[in-house]
Specification:
The complex is a heterotetramer, with two copies of chain A and two copies of chain B. By secondary structure, chain A is of the alpha+beta class. Chain A has one domain: Ubiquitin-like (UB roll), CATH 3.10.20. Chain A is about 25% helix and about 20% strand. Chain A has three helices and five strands, in the order βαβααβββ. A five-stranded mixed sheet of chain A has the order 2-1-5-3-4. Chain A is globular and about 35 Å long. Chain B is an alpha+beta fold. Chain B has one domain: Aldehyde Oxidoreductase, domain 3 (Alpha-Beta Complex). Chain B is about 30% helix and about 35% strand. In chain B, the strands form two sheets. A four-stranded mixed sheet of chain B has the order 1-4-6-2, sandwiched between helices. In chain B, a hairpin with a 2-residue loop joins strand 7 and strand 8. The longest helix of chain B has 17 residues. Chain B is globular and about 50 Å long. The two termini of chain B are about 30 Å apart. The chains are: A alpha+beta, B alpha+beta. Chains in contact: A-B, B-C, C-D. Chains B and C meet through helix 1, strand 2 and helix 3 of B and helix 1, strand 2 and helix 3 of C. Strand 2 of chain B pairs antiparallel with strand 2 of chain C.
Chain lengths: ~80, ~160, ~160, ~80
């Protein structure tokens, strides 16, 4: 599973992209957030408050109950500020 | 439809000419250019980060939605990324249609979408250092007016 | 504000560049180009007649009204007259502002005003001869949305 | 008083502009319309139905009760179709 981080989340996690192999009990986006928080203090800090962040699965916005599979591309980022 | 996410500047005049060239059924071209604001806000420069691929993918969906709502002829969207200075062009949206009401509405719809849904993030450089720009409630409210299917979920992520 | 009523074509790109050149407080440029529609409607050409002086005079008033409603930086209006062919540019309106909502609203307001209040009349050439275009109820209704003080009186003249 | 005619009104009247000296009893735009109708069959036809036409006095839209003076510029035309 490819996991991407943008803007200030990238700074906290310390990388913009990582290839991960979550355990089988990680079935949803919410499960993934919980598992990622255990990987490092930076991950825990970046993903501490899910009301401050947005996520996409395969480049579509997704909610915490979105199911995941091993080939998914998952991204975490702050609310967007383009335009 | 033409959608470009690019580092380079663009030429609004050339885009506008291209959109209407040789068409006698297009009565209206509505367009928008977004520029970097500076000075007064103490911003000396900004860097736009983006999520390559997601913008293009989402734009295809939002353009389909716009076409369902209004009779459109063509759509052009250009969004820059990288480091930009005050006064620099950031974004261009143009819509052609037989009639002006559709062109205006669809153009504003696409700009609202870009502001609120397209995965871009602004890092501003100020005298005090650099800071990530926070999303404006106002922008989210404007986008919600349209009640789009492809909304950026709030709250529960 | 710049307002031109002219026979010659204009360059939208040059106008847009001029409006935003050297300004770091302008975040938004909304613009509109109106083109002659032809072919499908059987129109081979049209001639725009106008009332020299009245348009410019009325535009000053309507621009003041727009500035009272929205915080605007600058406004540019160009309207052509004379004989035009399908696909030719007729009208250009551009508005610059710090924010996009004001730019879009004021641009659409000015275009609606031009359609419904500016003293221009279209004489269309078709296979069957030439005919003066009748005003559209729709255009009057759109302009009335704005409830402008400088309305074109209806009915009792 | 300068009186202007545009679009199809000009065709019916036969001129786009005339310098006129209405009698003193012509005090309003409505009075002027009534007086103009007596000048020629073309004038009468052009100004027959005031619901089909618009007028301006000194380049501002005006209604039938608008007062007139000798130095005014008055224009008659169909509803506009620019833009």
């Amino acid at each position: 599973m490819k996991v991407l981080y943008f803007a200030w989340l990238r700074g906290k996690v310390g990388t913009g992209e990582e290839e991960l192999f979550p355990p089988p009990e990680v079935k949803t986006l919410g499960d993934l957030v919980g598992w990622l928080r255990t990987r490092s203090p930076g991950h825990a800090q970046a993903l501490a408050d899910t009301s401050l962040i947005r996520a996409a699965v395969n480049q579509d916005y997704a909610r915490l109950d979105h199911p995941l599979s091993a080939s998914d591309e998952v991204a975490f980022f702050p609310p967007v500020t383009g335009g | 439809m033409s959608c470009r996410v690019q580092l380079e500047d663009f030429d609004p005049g050339a885009e506008l000419s291209r959109l209407s060239a040789g068409k006698s059924h297009v009565g209206a071209v509505a367009s928008f250019i977004g520029l970097v604001r500076g000075a007064g806000d103490g911003v000396s420069a900004m860097t736009l980060e983006h999520y390559p691929g997601m913008t293009e993918r989402q734009l295809v969906a939002i353009e389909q939605e716009a076409r369902q709502r209004w009779p459109l002829d063509d759509v052009s969207v250009i969004h820059r990324f990288g480091r930009l200075l005050p006064g620099d062009r950031i974004v261009f949206v143009a819509v052609t249609s037989g009639h002006r009401a559709a062109a205006f509405a669809a153009c504003e719809f696409l700009v609202d979408w870009l502001k609120n849904r397209a995965p871009f993030w602004k890092l501003e450089e100020t005298d005090l250092g650099s800071r990530w720009v926070a999303a404006k409630e106002d922008d989210e409210a404007r986008a919600e007016r349209w009640e789009t299917a492809s909304a950026q979920p709030k709250g529960e992520m």
